[in-house]
UniProtKB/TrEMBL annotation:
Pathway this chain belongs to: Nucleotide-sugar biosynthesis; UDP-alpha-D-xylose biosynthesis; UDP-alpha-D-xylose from UDP-alpha-D-glucuronate: step 1/1
Pfam family, one: GDP_Man_Dehyd
Annotated protein name in UniProt: UDP-glucuronate decarboxylase
NAD(P)-binding domain sequence ranges: 7-301
C-alpha cells in the first residue's frame, strides 16, 4: 500500500509505540529508532520477538543511514516538563532531527511524515484553529524550544518538498491521551489520573478555565496512517485532534467521577505562556482523510485509568 519497511523515529514513545503496533498489524516491517530520552523499552518489549520488528538505539540529531520505504518522524519529547528539561536538545531534536530524516528520505526518495503539533498555533487568537492560521507564538519563552523547533521543522518539510520534490506529510497533532502516557511527565490527563488513583490533590494550574481538546491515541494513530496513505498531492499540514473542548476543571471532575476518587482540588500558579484555549477545526482531515475521532472521552479515559491502575500496582512503578 505505502511501502513495506517503515521507519518510526520516537517509536518507543507514547504515540510511536502504538503506531509501531498498528504498522505491524497491517503487515509492515518496522524499524523503530529511539534514544530512550522519554520513551521506554517496556512500551515495545512485547514487539521485540516479532521478526518484522527491529529496534535501533539512535539519536536523530546524528545522521542515520538505513534503507526503508517510508518514514514517520515522531522523535521529540512532547510534554512541557520533558521538553523544557533540556531545551537546547529539544530544538536540536526538532531541527537537526528533521534535517537528517529529510536527508534520508531524499536519498531514498520515500515519503516522510512529520509529527507536528497544535503548539505551532501558540496561544491562539483564532478559535477554533484552522490550518491556515499562522499562530501566536512567543519566540523567546520557556515553551519556544518546542513550538519554534516544530515550526522550523514544518518549514524544512515544506522546503524539501518545494526544492527537492520530496513527498511529505505534516500532521498537526493536538493533545493526545491514552495508555503508555508517561506517569511523571506532567501532562494534565496523566497527572490527574495518577493523583486521583493515589488519593493525592488534583493540581489545577491557574483557575482551571483554560481549555484543551483531547484525542484518544488510537484515533490519533489512525489519522497518521490515513495521512501517510493519502493522495500524493496532499501534504497537509492537517489538524489531528478531537474537537470536543473541555476546561481543566471539567476534566478534573470527569477523572474524579470515573475513578471514584475523593481527592481534593489544589490550585497552583499557571505556567508562563500556557495557552488559554485550544480546539482543532478538523474539517480538512474529515474531507481529505475521511477521518474523525471515534473514541468517546469517557471510554478513552476509562482505558487510560485501567492502564495507570496496573502501572501503579507494579513494584517498579515509575511514578516516584
Ligand atoms: P514521547 O515523549 O512519549 O515520545 C517521543 C519519543 O521520541 C520518545 O520515545 C523519545 O525517547 C524519543 N526521542 C526524543 N528525542 C529523540 C532523539 N533526539 N532521537 C531519537 N529519539 C528521540 O511523546 P509522544 O507524546 O509520543 O509524542 C510523539 C510525537 O508526537 C512528538 O514528536 C510530539 O511532538 C508529537 N505530538 C504529541 C502530542 C501529544 O499530545 N502526545 C501532541 C502534539 C504532537
Ligand atoms: N542524511 C542522513 N541519512 C541519509 C542521507 C542524509 O542522515 O541517508 C543526513 C545528512 O547527514 C545531511 C542531512 O541528512 O546532513 C541532510 O541531507 P541533504 O542531502 O538534504 O543535505 P546535504 O547532505 O547536501 O547537506
Ligand atoms: N495542567 C493542570 N494541572 C496539571 C498539569 C497541567 O492544570 O497537573 C494544565 C496546563 O497548565 C495546561 C493544560 O493543563 O493548561 C494542559 O497541559 P498539558 O501539559 O497536558 O498540555 P499542553 O499545555 O502542552 O497542551
Amino acid at each position: 500500500m505505502y511501502g513495506h519497511r517503515v521507519l518510526v523515529t520516537g517509536g518507543a514513545g507514547f504515540i510511536g509505540s502504538h503506531l509501531c503496533e498498528r504498522l505491524l498489524a497491517q503487515g509492515c516491517e518496522v524499524l523503530c529508532v529511539d534514544n530512550f530520552y522519554t520513551g521506554a523499552r517496556e512500551h515495545i518489549a512485547h514487539l521485540i520477538g516479532d521478526p518484522r520488528f527491529e529496534l535501533l538505539r539512535h539519536d536523530v540529531t546524528f545522521p542515520l543511514y538505513v534503507e526503508v520505504d517510508a518514514i514517520y518522524n515522531l522523535a521529540c519529547p512532547a510534554s512541557p516538563v520533558h521538553y523544557q528539561f533540556d531545551p537546547v536538545q529539544t530544538t536540536k531534536t526538532s531541527v537537526h532531527g528533521a534535517i537528517n530524516m529529510l536527508g534520508l528520505a531524499k536519498r531514498l526518495k520515500v515519503k516522510i511524515l512529520q509529527a507536528s503539533t497544535s503548539e505551532v498555533y501558540g496561544d491562539p487568537k483564532v478559535h477554533p484553529q484552522q490550518e491556515d492560521y499562522w499562530g501566536h507564538v512567543n519566540p523567546i519563552g520557556p515553551r519556544s524550544c518546542y513550538d519554534e523547533g516544530k515550526r522550523c521543522a514544518e518549514t524544512l518539510f515544506m522546503d524539501y518538498h518545494r526544492q527537492h520534490k520530496l513527498p511529505i506529510k505534516i500532521a498537526r497533532i493536538f493533545n493526545t491521551y491514552g495508555p503508555r502516557m508517561h506517569p511523571a511527565d506532567g501532562r494534565v490527563v496523566s497527572n490527574f489520573i495518577v493523583q486521583a488513583l493515589k488519593g493525592e490533590p488534583i493540581t489545577i494550574f491557574g483557575d482551571g478555565q483554560q481549555t484543551r481538546a483531547f484525542c484518544f491515541v488510537e484515533d490519533t494513530v489512525d489519522a497518521l496512517l490515513r495521512l501517510m496513505a493519502s493522495s500524493p498531492d496532499f501534504t497537509g499540514p492537517v489538524n489531528v485532534g478531537n474537537p470536543q473542548e473541555l476546561s481543566m476543571l471539567d476534566i478534573a471532575q470527569l477523572v474524579l467521577d470515573l475513578t471514584g476518587s475523593r481527592s481534593k482540588l489544589e490550585f497552583r500558579p499557571l505556567p508562563a505562556d500556557d495557552p488559554c484555549r485550544r480546539r482543532p477545526d478538523i474539517s480538512l482531515a474529515q474531507r481529505m482523510l475521511q477521518w474523525e475521532p471515534k473514541v468517546e472521552l469517557r471510554d478513552g479515559l476509562l482505558r487510560t485509568i485501567a492502564y495507570f491502575e496496573e502501572l501503579l500496582k507494579a513494584p517498579a512503578a515509575k511514578c516516584g
